[in-house]
Amino acid sequence: QVQLVESGGGLVQAGGSLRLSCVASASTFSISPMAWYRQAPGKARELVASITSASMIPKYADSVKGRFTILRDNAKKTVELHMSDLEPEDTAVYYCNTEPTLRPWQWGQGTQVTVSS
């Protein structure tokens, strides 16, 4: 069973930066397109960014384009989300998993990001 462990969240002021990290135990990580998602209180989980497996081509939701960067290291089985110019609207629990067209692995506990105004 695949385990996903997210970390790096915290409390930051608007305009600040955070780096999230996710470690996956999957043996197929290097061939799996990955993504970061977030879920704010009372809202559905939404896709934030995705990255292809070998070519590592990123895609971003319009709301984070230009502020967030998704990266992956297939040797370390990690995917990161570098967030800058954070806004209160970015407050959510952030999760990593496979990109939306694939069956998701078991969701991890996520990491809380709170942006104060």
What does this structure look like?
The chain has 117 residues and is an all-beta fold. It is 0% helix and 47% strand. It contains no helices and ten strands. The strands form two sheets. A six-stranded mixed β-sheet has the order 2-10-9-4-5-6, with no helix packed on it. A four-stranded antiparallel β-sheet has the order 1-3-8-7, with no helix packed on it. It is globular. The termini are far apart. The mean pLDDT is 97.
Structural class assignment = mainly beta
Query: How large is the share of residues in beta strands?
Result: over 45%
N-to-C span? 40 Å
The multimeric state of the shown protein is single chain
Largest sheet: 6 strands, mixed
Mean pLDDT: 97
Low-confidence sequence ranges: none
Helix share bin: under 10%
Task: Tell me the number of helical segments per DSSP (H or I, 4 or more residues long).
Answer: 0
What overall geometry do the principal axes of the alpha carbons give?
A: globular
Major beta sheet, strand line-up: 2-10-9-4-5-6
Order of helices and strands: EEEEEEEEEE
β-strand number: 10
- The radius of gyration is 13 Å
